[in-house]
Amino acid sequence: MGRRILVVDDEPDILELTRLSLVREGYEVETAATGEEALACLRRSRPDLVVLDLMLPDRPGTDVCRVIRTTPELSDVAVIMLTARGDEVDRIVGFELGADDYVTKPFSPRELGLRVKAILRRGVEEKTESEHLKQHGLELDLSRHRCLHRDEEIALTAKEFLLLAALMRRPGRVLTRERLLEEVWGEGIAVTLRTVDTHMKRLREKLGPAGDLIDTVRGVGYRFRE
Questions:
Q1: Which of 21, 35, 183, 206 could form a disulfide bond with 109, CB atoms 3.0-4.6 angstroms apart?
Q2: In the 3-class helix/strand/coil scheme, how is the chain assigned residue by residue?
Q3: CATH of 4-126, one of 3.40.50.1980, 3.40.50.2300, 3.90.110.10, 3.30.750.24
């Protein structure tokens, strides 16, 4: 069975174009034209990825993204924000809410297809790892996408999980923002260094006291304590 994608957009032409292009790539595609319809689809069946328009008629796409990230059984579903607004502030808002990527309208179906493929491929690579990382009472189970601190589970988004894994693999070593962007987001993805800081802030907040294990090296990047 192919990977499942939910496309959410209130513009019929864009919705159908996106659906057809992803079906041609071999994905199973479901569509929704409103936020409420999207949430109903998510409750009915969990997709692997959501292509989510920021501007919806009944509720903003940011609300839908927030629901995805705060629902345990959906929290690791990948999200690509789709919007006509290209300002950096809108990208940052999307990333703060846990979006994995951001595509600005008008876009080419090929570009979107490449973004989808890259995100899903990284997810497969992560799930095939059998590695466990343990440091200072913090544990990452990479094969099950689980984060635990002193046996209590912490729900992380895909990007937050990858950031923490990158740091925990190299305790005591400083990783630059550029290195983290390349390792977590991949090459050729148009995001700024500030994106790393935004995700790191959310990661520390979710980790609670364990967030202090991540040190900021001013002007350089981040380091997980030895």
A1: 21
A2: CCCEEEEECCCHHHHHHHHHHHHHCCCEEEEECCHHHHHHHHHHCCCCEEEEECCCCCCCHHHHHHHHHHCCCCCCCEEEEEECCCCHHHHHHHHHCCCCEEEECCCCHHHHHHHHHHHHHHHHHHHHCCCEEEECCEEEECCCCEEEECCEEECCCHHHHHHHHHHHCCCCCEEEHHHHHHHHHCCCCCCCHHHHHHHHHHHHHHHHHHHHHEEEECCCEEEECC
A3: 3.40.50.2300
- Residue 192: pLDDT over 70: yes
Q: pLDDT tens digits for 19-30? A: 999 999 999 999
pLDDT of residue 183: 80
CATH code for residues 129-224:
1.10.10.10
Q: Where in the chain is the domain with CATH 3.40.50.2300?
A: 4-126
pLDDT at position 66, please?
86
Q: Name residues whose C-beta falls within 8 Å of residue 69's C-beta, 6 or more positions apart in sequence.
A: 75, 79, 97, 98, 157
